Amino acid sequence: MNPKIVGFEELSDRCKKLRDAGKKLVATNGCFDLLHVGHVRYLQGARALGDFLAIGLNADSSVRELKGTRRPIMTQDDRAELLAALQCVDLVTIFPQLRATQFIAAVRPAIYVKGGDYTSETLDEEERAALKEIGAEIRLIPFEAGYSTSRLIEQICKPRPQIR
């Protein structure tokens, strides 16, 4: 197992040590099912905002609730391993809840990043309250046009002419 993939307790301990050392922590969360270029660019942009990037990865059970019974395509362990392999990612933890409030409380980031498909108004109310409580800045990174897991799934499933 990749040492970047940790449980909540270790996540909390490591993030506290980093904060105490004066590091600027950046956090984000998501499903990251069928990792694509849009995800990679988003995560690189998030990491560039601070010294350390922690990712809260939705567990398979929460992905099913959020995206439907045919998702995720990839298991939580495979998704975590792919994320951990990226140079811009420092820690990954899997969380089963629908909301990232416990993840936010464990990391206590200086900056919390979401994709451009969100606005400060559409961000989950509980997550927004948790971020306000710890004084975290919310930053939105523009959405990468043309890249989405749903679109990728559609392309894979679409009949194509045979390549000779």
Task: Explain what you see.
The chain has seven helices and five strands; from the N terminus they run αβαβααβαβαβα. By secondary structure, the protein is α/β, with parallel strands linked by helices. The mean pLDDT is 91. The protein is globular and about 60 Å long. The chain has a single domain, classed as 3-Layer(aba) Sandwich (Rossmann fold), CATH 3.40.50.620.
Task: Please provide a brief summary of the model.
The chain has 164 residues and is of the alpha/beta class.
Whole-number total of structural domains: 1
Largest sheet: 5 strands, parallel
What is the top-level CATH class?
Alpha Beta
Query: For the terminal residues, how far apart are their CA atoms?
Result: 40 Å
Gyration radius (Cα, Å) is 16 Å
Output the keywords.
single chain, about 160 residues, alpha/beta, Rossmann fold, five-stranded parallel β-sheet, 7 helices, globular
